[in-house]
């Protein structure tokens, strides 16, 4: 009995020594404690620091972030808290409604259907959802298309505007009036939402006019009249098809006795584009 008791005491002593030794060595390496490193709260991460991992989001904001180009924490108040087991993605991600009201009306609350990436809010794809709601914001353009019917009236907005804010070249559908015509010239005569209401900005459009009115342009080129040096828009003013009165430029060019007998200038001057011609 004594031998058994002594053996039990010996084993208990060994276990106590081993457990004490294990408790004193809980790590495989020795790292000195530095509590001073945790004495102050850390500063918030800067966008540049976030970008070290989230380069795609950073570049999106840089190139097409619009008004979203501010500190990441402005939206992401909870960072790196996503847990796959909890499936808490919706919980930790910011909500559009936290900052934005119903700016597109009460029926357009599905922001992500157009603004698919909050880091590139200015890149808006022209989805069927958006194409059917253009007039909600662009009422004036829609009104012009209805009031001034043209082939553009019957074309869906997304036929030309393939993404929100995209302004296409007229030459995607239309041929230029003359070779090497600059596309910038189109909008100086044609308002895109009422293209048949042709107006002129400036007076230097003779080459454009000649593309349709070739015979008249050739007459003006050959005539000895001073009219061959006058821009078409100087007489035809600011609206296509406008026919001016001679008296808008010429104030009583003949004595009163002649004007009384011939009040209509074109009674003698038969062709305003070739005045010397007296047929």
Automatic annotation (TrEMBL):
CDD domains from the xrefs?
Answer: Cytochrom_C3
The record's listing under Gene3D superfamilies reads: Cytochrome C3, Flavocytochrome C3, Chain A
Q: Which InterPro entries match?
A: Multihaem_cyt_sf, Multiheme_Cytochr_ET
What range does the record give for the signal peptide?
1-23
> The organism sits in which domain of life?
Bacteria
Which keywords, in A-to-Z order, does the entry hold?
Signal
Which PANTHER family did the record assign?
Answer: DISSIMILATORY SULFITE REDUCTASE SIRA
| Protein name per the record | Cytochrome C
Q: Species lineage, top-down? A: Bacteria, Pseudomonadati, Thermodesulfobacteriota, Desulfuromonadia, Geobacterales
